[in-house]
Structure prediction request, 170 residues.
Amino acid sequence: MPLRILIAYATKHETTREIAEVITETLNEEGFEAKAKAVGMVESLAEYDMVVIGSPIYMGMILKEAKTFVIRFADALKEKQVATFAVGMSCKDLTDETCRKVEEAMAPITNRVQVKGEMGMFAGRMNPSFIPIFGRFMRYNKAKTEDARDWEAIRAWARSLAKQCAVAAV
Ligand SMILES: Cc1cc2nc3c(=O)[nH]c(=O)nc-3n(C[C@H](O)[C@H](O)[C@H](O)COP(=O)(O)O)c2cc1C
Prediction:
């Protein structure tokens, strides 16, 4: 039976959902049985062998629902293989410093679960309409409309995850 993988994502503006769907598609092409679901829509992890958890970063933090998901399924996640990915505009330039900040943002997940392989760090998408009114003094206020997603990098990460899973399954 192929490994059954859930890609559980949090999102505010759909960017991370679309990334989760491309990861899902790639894993399915690699012969796994993958499915993407918003974290809030997941009722049980019983039907999955592996869970990939993804969240965008806002103001240096992951979305609350991603953390809630990990806390809610803490026991079940101990029995699964877990991988993670983060989405943020800072991931356009993955210096040591940006990687450190992304890892710090993802700590509410990675401190709670045993994670497999390298975290995916993907550039996201920006639109002035994403900026809340109260955020007009923020750095991101000057943001222009931009889609920085590197679909090939996202697919490559999913394929490398698939390779690790295949090795683990032997
Ligand atoms: C108010 C605001 C704050 C943000 N803060 C960060 C941040 O701290 N680090 C980062 O890398 N990206 C940051 N971003 C970029 C988002 O992570 C990016 O827009 C992402 O693609 C949003 O994903 P979503 O559409 O799935 O919610 C911020 C975006 C906004 C609008």
Notes: The chain is about 35% helix and 20% strand. The mean pLDDT is 92. The radius of gyration is 16 Å. The beta strands are 4-9, 33-38, 50-58, 61-62, 81-87, 120-122, 125-126, 146-147.
